[in-house]
Specification:
216 residues; disordered N terminus
Amino acid sequence: MARHALTTTAAVLTTAAALLLTACGGGDDASPEDIKGADTGASPSASAAASAPESGDGPDLSVPSDLDLVFDFDKPSDAKQAAALADAENYIRALNHGFAAQDPNDPAYQYYSGNQAAAYAKSQIQAWVKGGWTPTGTDKYYNEEITTLSSKRVLVTFCRNQAKFYGKEIKTGKILYTDENLDSYQKYSMFLTPSGSSKIWKTQVIQVRGQAKECQ
């Protein structure tokens, strides 16, 4: 079940402070995420799913037809929070589009991110390209919390269950199945700001914590 948190807690403040420090140039942790099964780009010929909800001016966010990105989120009543949450989703879609396109310089993630979050996306895509994998299966995101830090700063956190999300070898088509365990659960924290005069909220900093027991 999805939920929002409009109140600022001590934990939220701690996370926000850490992300703000990273945004200001400290601790850029852009090392490839230890993604279960393996995360990577699909071949350029991979069939695209219609799961990418994008406006005419935005980038292509399509993903392979055998990949289902599930966002079990409730839409916030606050317009700013709703926009930030929607573009946090788009960053995840853009990341997977980059895996599928096998392009570390894919314009999709660059459209929805900047600073450390853009470097993180590039490093992830490079890891998938090096491994020769494309994503497949079902990837679930849920239990969102959205905190407005200021008129131009929003913190979005949520859980991920990647138990049925796998890497697939592009050359052989072999799916790298793994069993569900604590590594299947992750906690995401994303710091977003609006991009100039546009209505796009860009992820500036992303923090991914593995073995998130609270997400089980």
